[in-house]
Design brief:
By secondary structure, the protein is of the alpha/beta class. Helices cover about 40% and strands about 15% of the residues.
Length: about 575
């Protein structure tokens, strides 16, 4: 398929630029060697390098886009190339073959729990989700639902509303008991950090029979779930209930303990059979502009942390400018409205369509009265006589060449600077890792300040100490933190000399074959903006019974029909 695609693209080239004319032809020749069995594994790197040159240097979209799509296919199907080179045959299966499962970082059985919800078996749906994700309630509210991007229903009409179906399952199944733990292994593991990654590791290791103690720097569990996501997006009673349910497995906690200072990592390693580090990105980043030390310049991380402990600032009557374009910036923007601000502006140096925040978060902020000001970069903070903020000066931008991430790079426009009157400036341009305790423990850190680990998530140069999540990858989403925690639990279990399997005894409904007709997607509603912006109650409404039955009926059951069977079906344990 890849060869035929490239051959087709090569036939459509104009021939004016050599990367397209020669490069695509060379890729076809290299693929012929793979198919003819006249290649070794080193040819894969040659193919990748050649395709990257074409993608970067071709003058027209035919050459560049052909190479980019080919590279995506090479990345997704590298095992197929290796199988052809080594055994001269195609693979008969691949891992995580079902599209929505493959794109979910935690590989949750999406079609499985959707089928269960359709039959009204919501408690079983929650049990099935917990096999791969111990936070079904949390993810029903705040997951970024990457699974929907590859939902094959989108080829018919629109992807399923998967996150809302998960929330429906949770809303309609109360107090689902946790599965029983395996017999005690006698092994003790310390988990440093009680965010989604650390608690996920603790959860699965406890199910495997290990004795787990979680160390947390702050006074409450949850990490960025509590100290980075506002109440109106993730209700605190729901978060508390989910964590409390997990602790019923016998997980012990030690709060207000700053590992690296109050207790050293070496001490934990001596006391426990293994240690897992899952520190979140709680350190804020600075703008690095003149006047940033003015009274009234705050970090979004600091504000959301205080909100997590129940301390909400009073912005009544104030003018607030938020700098940034991610989900944290939107949280700060929408929270400022609830703090009573008179006017809130979110300034971002790129275009609105380039903002990394979820579209629904941006639209929600606008509906609540915030102003989004794209293509404006901060220049300096203006101070008053007493050192307080009086304004933020910004420089208008224009769109320039694409950067390495494929987004148009902003450049200074030939326009004068603009003054934005402000009493409060909130900086939300990213987070980093607090590295003092790690440096004190002699951890090997990379240039980003994150921990260096090997393929088994073991900290390089430290036996028995593992790390994962944001302290390794940098800032990430909730579901990616959960995925890291799940992988760490498996690695630690093997390190301790075991090979436990996590499974669930839930029988899935038998799929029904029916004719496919176009059906519109159910999008859940939000409370009225004029009402919700004055309180901290949850802004989104769940599905009704009718909506859930309708939306779950749209699932094509790729795990059973055609694609799922052809590519190997589902995994029932890990």
């Amino acid at each position: 398929m890849a060869r035929n695609f490239l051959t087709l693209c090569h036939a459509q080239t104009c021939g004016k630029c050599s990367p397209c004319r020669i490069g695509i032809g060379q890729l076809v020749n290299l693929l012929d060697k793979v198919l003819d069995g006249d290649a070794d594994l080193s040819i894969i790197d040659t193919i990748e390098e050649t395709a990257q040159v074409v993608a970067d240097a071709a003058d027209c979209a035919i050459g560049a886009e052909a190479a980019k799509k080919f590279l995506i296919g090479l990345k997704e199907s590298r095992q197929d190339y290796e199988e052809h080179i080594i055994r001269h045959r195609c693979l008969d299966r691949v891992d995580a073959p079902i599209p929505c499962i493959a794109l979910c970082p935690a590989h949750v059985d999406v079609p499985g729990y959707i089928a269960l919800v359709h039959e009204g078996r919501c408690a079983d749906a929650v049990r099935l989700i917990r096999r791969d994700n111990p936070f079904p309630s949390v993810c029903g509210f705040v997951c970024e639902h990457p699974c929907e991007k590859r939902c094959r229903r989108g080829m018919v009409d629109a992807p399923l509303n998967i996150r809302s179906i998960k929330r429906y399952a949770v809303d309609h199944s109360s107090n689902v008991p946790q599965p029983p733990c395996a017999p005690s292994t006698g092994k003790r593991v310390a988990v440093v950090g009680a965010g989604p990654g650390g608690l996920t590791t603790a959860y699965y290791l406890a199910l495997m029979g290990h004795d787990i103690t979680v160390y947390e720097k702050r006074k409450q569990l949850g990490g960025m779930l509590r100290y980075g996501i506002p109440d109106y997006r993730l209700p605190r009673d729901l978060l508390d209930a989910e964590i409390h349910s997990m602790l019923q497995l016998g997980i012990k906690t030690r709060m207000n303990v700053d590992v690296g200072f109050d207790v050293l990592y070496e001490q934990l390693r001596q006391e426990y059979d293994a240690v897992f580090i899952s520190l979140g990105a709680h350190a804020d980043k600075k703008l690095g502009i003149e006047g940033e030390d003015a009274v009234g310049v705050m970090s979004a991380v600091q504000i959301l942390r205080e909100v997590g402990d129940g301390k909400k600032p009073d912005f009544t009557g104030k003018r607030v400018v938020v700098v940034g374009g991610g989900n944290v910036a939107m949280d700060a923007t929408r929270s400022s409205i609830r703090f009573g601000a008179h006017k809130v502006i979110c300034a971002y140096r790129r275009r609105r369509e380039d903002m990394p925040a979820l579209v629904e978060e941006i639209e929600g902020a606008i509906a609540e009265g915030a102003e989004i000001l794209p293509l404006h970069a901060p220049v300096r903070v203006e101070k008053g006589e007493n050192g307080e903020v009086t304004a933020l000066w910004v420089q208008p931008q224009i769109i320039g060449p694409h950067d390495t991430a494929g987004r148009p790079r902003p450049l200074n426009a030939d326009l004068p600077e603009r003054r934005l009157p402000a009493d409060v400036v909130i900086v939300a341009i990213g987070q980093g890792i607090e590295t003092e305790g790690l440096q004190k423990g002699n951890f090997q850190l990379d240039k980003r300040g994150t921990i260096v680990i090997d393929s088994e998530m073991r900290v390089v140069g430290m036996d028995g100490i593992f790390a994962g999540g944001e302290c390794v990858t940098g800032p990430a989403t909730v579901i990616k933190a959960i995925t890291a925690g799940k992988a760490a639990a498996s690695s630690i279990d093997r390190y301790l000399g075991f090979h436990h399997k996590i499974s669930v005894d839930v029988k899935l409904p038998v799929p029904q074959l029916y004719d496919i007709h176009g059906l519109g997607r159910v999008n859940t509603l939000e409370r009225d903006a004029d009402e919700r912006k004055h309180d901290y109650e949850c802004i989104t409404l769940g599905m009704s019974d009718q909506e859930a039955r309708y939306e779950t009926s749209r699932c094509l059951r790729c795990d059973h029909f055609g694609y799922g069977v052809f590519r190997g079906g589902r995994k029932e344990e890990w």
